[in-house]
Amino acid sequence: MTFDAMAVYTELRTHFRERVRLNEPLARHCTFGVGGPADVWITLDSRDELMSLVRLCAERHWPLLLVGNGTNTLYADAGMRGIVARIALNNYSIEEQEDGTVLLLAEAGVSWPRLLNELAPQGWGGLEFGPGIPGTLGGGVISNAGAHNGDMAQVLEWIEVLDARSSSEEQYSVPIVRRYQHDELDLSYRHSRFRELRRVQFDAQGYPEVAPRQLIEPAEIIMRLGIRLHREEPQKLRELIEQYKQHRKRTQPPQQSAGSVFKNPPGDYAGRLIEQVGMKGMVHGKAKISERHANFIVNLGSASATDVVALIKEARNRVHEKFGVDLELEVELRGEWGKSGDSAAQSEAQ
Ligand SMILES: Cc1cc2nc3c(=O)[nH]c(=O)nc-3n(C[C@H](O)[C@H](O)[C@H](O)COP(=O)(O)OP(=O)(O)OC[C@H]3O[C@@H](n4cnc5c(N)ncnc54)[C@H](O)[C@@H]3O)c2cc1C
């Protein structure tokens, strides 16, 4: 594959203007605050832009990664070759259905906290479990985001995706729009059908091994969601949201992070296990296992992805040794990861 970043940048700039950038540090676009440059970075504001870009990349064989708010993503220090595009499609409407139920029709880039701030005062309930989930609704489907005994699966009716699975470096076919109903999404605890393909494996030493990327990644891009809402007292919603926010303030660290690093294993908590193997407060480079919540790795200021991966590896290995539990990653690894978790093999966590 040849990708001439400067030529692609120049071509895209005629349409996207200042929304396209060359060698953009990914650390600016994720809550971990780590990650090297994307060759080309674009912010997509509309469905038409998204569809044209995917079509163009498929035709020209330009590698493309689509992301949301970067709140569940760890980018590699080496950054990402090709184009990284943020889905910032931001419109939504509320529609009463013929059977009397109410649907929120939202574009995938709508951000959860903004939505709650607008829905709660109008007395629309359904998503109030998520005031502390800083991502987009689209990203929320991928991991079936949830908190406080609620999750996306409880309210999601359907999604609309742009399906580019038949395009590869060897062949082009026109991406198609398709709709998946709730039952086709395989939603369960932090899981959806979309996560199956990119499940991270770990090598013999415990470093993450990222699945090979596709030309258009992910190949099914969520564009729109239908979410069931219900009527609720605005005051009750406000109180619940405030209660959840306060709970987070008490239990989660204030520094930069990507939320929980590992999924909770069945019947237990990843944070409890990591604490039990003596890693609370452990530092590697400028990354640290939070003292407030051991399933959070925080950036102390200038952490690298390698620092974060060193802690991931150490926590997984220690938990496996002591409890026989294989922790599974909740955060997604994106970018150019070498063997042994970037260059993490060179320096071990202390
Ligand atoms: C402080 C903090 C607290 C958090 N608390 C919670 C919590 O309580 N519960 C919880 O579930 N999560 C939590 N998270 C994690 C995160 O906010 C969620 O996983 C969120 O849903 C991710 O959305 P995003 O837009 O940031 O996704 P990103 O991180 O941008 O992307 C995640 C993955 O989804 C893919 N993706 C994104 N958008 C689309 C799309 N439209 N179509 C196809 N693929 C897409 C990306 O390629 C990437 O692989 C927390 C994170 C932080 C930083």
Describe, in plain words, how this protein is organized in 3D:
This protein is of the alpha+beta class and 350 residues long. The chain folds into three domains: 88 residues, Uridine Diphospho-n-acetylenolpyruvylglucosamine Reductase, domain 2 (2-Layer Sandwich); 162 residues, 2-Layer Sandwich (Uridine Diphospho-n-acetylenolpyruvylglucosamine Reductase, domain 3); 94 residues, Alpha-Beta Complex (Uridine Diphospho-n-acetylenolpyruvylglucosamine Reductase, domain 1). Helices cover 24% and strands 25% of the residues. The chain has seven helices and 20 strands. The strands form six sheets. Strands 6, 7, 8, 11, 12 and 16 form a six-stranded antiparallel sheet that branches. A five-stranded mixed sheet has the order 1-2-5-3-15, covered by helices on one side. A three-stranded antiparallel sheet has the order 17-18-19. It starts with a helix and ends in a 16-residue tail after the last strand. 46% of the residues are buried. The C terminus is likely disordered. The structure holds flavin-adenine dinucleotide (FAD).
